[in-house]
Amino acid sequence: MKEYTLTPCEEQLNNAIDRNDPAAQHTAIEYEFPPEFSPRAKMALDYFEVGTKYSTACLFAYKGRYVVTDESHWLTSHGDGTPGNPMGFPRWEGNSLDALEGWLEAIADELDEEGEWEQE
Question: Which pTM does this prediction carry?
Answer without folding.
Answer: 0.88
